[in-house]
Amino acid sequence: MKSKLLLYIAIGFTFGIFLLQPLLISLHMYDMQGDQGNWWAWLLTSYQQVVGSWDVDQAVTKLLFGLLGVTLALLFMVRQKIFQLTGKRDKLEEIKELIAAGENQQVEFKSTLRWDLHQFKPNKALETVVAKTIAGFMNTSGGHLFIGIDDDGQPCGLQEDYATLKKPGRDGFEQYIMELISNKLGTNLCTLVAVSFYKIEAYDFCHLAIKRAGSPVYLHDNDRSHFFVRTGNGTRELDIPEALNYIEENLMVVNDENQVVYTSANCLQLLCG
Length: 273
Known about the structure:
The chain is of the alpha+beta class.
């Protein structure tokens, strides 16, 4: 935040001296001449005067115009911040409405990503459950996964998860999520997941907005590929016949030459390992 503020001050000061000052002086001179002559010539003369003259009077004038530029830059920064806060507040209200509606085919709650609330330690199996849910959303119609929200829709925070990461905090959590998707589902699928964070009652929680994939998504676990879909408010693994039927009916992909890319044969090969 401090570096951004300094950047705005520097830009504003430069803007005030080298743009505002010659522009306003040239307009004043042009007006004093009764709008006669070439305004562009006045502008060039004013700019040359600003750049070439550094006596005491000009230095004071430059300082005043620089401060004017800084003021305008800071007003612009504040305006942007207000718009950002307003947009984030509106987005939080939308998120609260999704949570209040409860779990359904497109909404799932997870208390933690990897911290086992019963064993009081990290549990890799919980990460796999999260990956299953993401795969299920991708294979169905997309959806919203909330981590740090319990089954009753109450925020419980991410502090335990944060503490298990090499880089504690939101950035480290997002990075870990993306690594999980890359390792369990495929690196190319990371682009289908948008990660954001919100706070309710001092509790951080994570929102994953997951898009539907255009091709079958498999969870890779223990040298096997598994196929999951959303059914109601849960995620279910399909056996091989069910998966093949589902893929043919819902996820069959063709290329630009209208040739089927995913056939029953190559899907069966993936599912059987």
